[in-house]
Amino acid sequence: MTFDGPIAILGGSGQLGSEVCKLLSGRLGVVAPGRQTLDLACLADVRIWLDVNQPNLIINTAAYTDVDGAESHKDAAYTLNSDLPSVLANWCRKNGMLL
Description:
This protein is 49% helix and 10% strand. The protein is built from four helices and three strands.
């Protein structure tokens, strides 16, 4: 499958995301915004970033994986593990892109 637009790797600085970035390194159109560029916990910013960058494919490797920390940071864990994938899926459906 060929993609005309960028491939977005979200969570690219994490353990899984950095490995995916290595696998796709050297390919044109791969975009992996870092935390300073895109705060994935700010869903409004995520929507804006998607609208501006229009990726044809989103690879979401972002997740809140600290099980003990999730107990004390429930909102953050829920945002990354539930709300973010929902926002990404809705954006992809609306724009005819792949997740």
